[in-house]
């Protein structure tokens, strides 16, 4: 019987690549997005051309009621959740100095990136606890954070804070669920070519040309998807709470 993966923010960019990778490796995939599939014809066509088995679910993970509803809908459709990939995230609508950041911007970013991730973990974990083992574990949760969980960006402090929170969420759930056969991991992408980074392409092109990144190229959504696939399989059964930096070596300190 095929396992069931849920990918939030699966309509584009990193989430789309993750969904395709998992679908090609034997998962039925539940896509969670804020808008219906009719808004993403290229994504749907890409899924179909890749031959993956997927269903589309609409929800804003910043809303508690919508989180609960979408998990109920997914379980009603598939019967279980074997893998949750918390990929949905937002950036500040306007980048601004730390001294002028608004509470509205903070609440907007943290509401999705941190609170949304936290309680999607909770919803999925409680569902997984009801399930029998399938393979060698009861379930897996993978949180997509960012190199910004540790790297300071003064013009988007709310984003850095939100992703640092995701790192702690990962550790907390990993410790709580290890004895239940549920493993929890974190992936920290760096500069990945998506619509979120397209707005600052010139800045990152310059950093790449200046060899700020040891692997001197843009990252691609598929790079993140490959890391997700590693954690999703039954190969790393003596690890939990672990993170992978998918950042071209940007996290390395050098003299």
Task: Report what the structure shows.
With 255 residues, the chain is of the alpha/beta class. The protein is 43% helix and 16% strand. The chain has one domain: NAD(P)-binding Rossmann-like Domain (Rossmann fold), CATH 3.40.50. The chain has a 7-stranded parallel β-sheet with strand order 3-2-1-4-5-6-7, sandwiched between helices. β1, α1 and β2 form a beta-alpha-beta unit. α1 packs parallel to α2 and α3 packs parallel to α4. The radius of gyration is 18 Å and the shape is globular. The mean pLDDT is 96.
List key phrases describing it.
7-stranded parallel beta sheet, Rossmann fold, 255 residues, single chain, 7 strands
The total tally of domains equals 1
Helix content: 40-55%
Broad CATH class: Alpha Beta
What is the CATH architecture term? 3-Layer(aba) Sandwich
For the sheet with most strands, the description reads:
7 strands, parallel
CATH topology: Rossmann fold
Count of DSSP E strands? 7
Structural class: alpha/beta
Q: Tell me the Rg in angstroms.
A: 18 Å
H/I helix tally: 8
Global morphology: globular
């Amino acid at each position: 019987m095929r396992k069931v993966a849920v990918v939030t923010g699966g309509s584009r960019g990193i989430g789309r690549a993750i969904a395709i990778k998992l679908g090609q490796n034997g998962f039925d995939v539940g896509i969670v997005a804020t808008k219906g599939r009719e808004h993403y014809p290229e994504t749907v066509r890409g899924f179909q051309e890749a031959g993956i088995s997927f269903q589309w679910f609409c929800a804003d993970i910043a809303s508690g009621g919508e989180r609960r509803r979408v998990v109920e809908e997914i379980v009603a459709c598939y019967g279980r959740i074997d893998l949750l990939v918390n990929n949905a995230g937002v950036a500040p609508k306007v980048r601004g100095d730390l001294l002028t950041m608004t509470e509205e911007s903070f609440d907007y970013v943290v509401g999705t990136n941190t609170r949304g991730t936290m309680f999607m973990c909770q919803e999925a974990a409680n569902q997984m606890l009801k399930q029998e083992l399938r393979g060698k574990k009861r379930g897996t949760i993978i949180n997509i954070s960012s190199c910004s969980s540790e790297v300071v960006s003064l013009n988007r402090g709310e984003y850095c804070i939100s992703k640092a929170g995701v790192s702690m969420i990962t550790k907390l759930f990993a410790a709580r669920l290890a004895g239940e056969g549920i493993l929890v991991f974190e992936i920290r992408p760096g500069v990945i070519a998506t619509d979120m980074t397209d707005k600052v392409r010139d800045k990152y092109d310059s950093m790449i040309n200046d060899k700020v990144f040891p692997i001197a190229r843009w990252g691609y959504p598929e790079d993140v998807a490959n890391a997700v696939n590693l954690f999703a399989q039954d190969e790393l059964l003596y690890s939990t709470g672990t993170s992978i930096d998918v950042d071209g070596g940007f996290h390395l300190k050098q003299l």
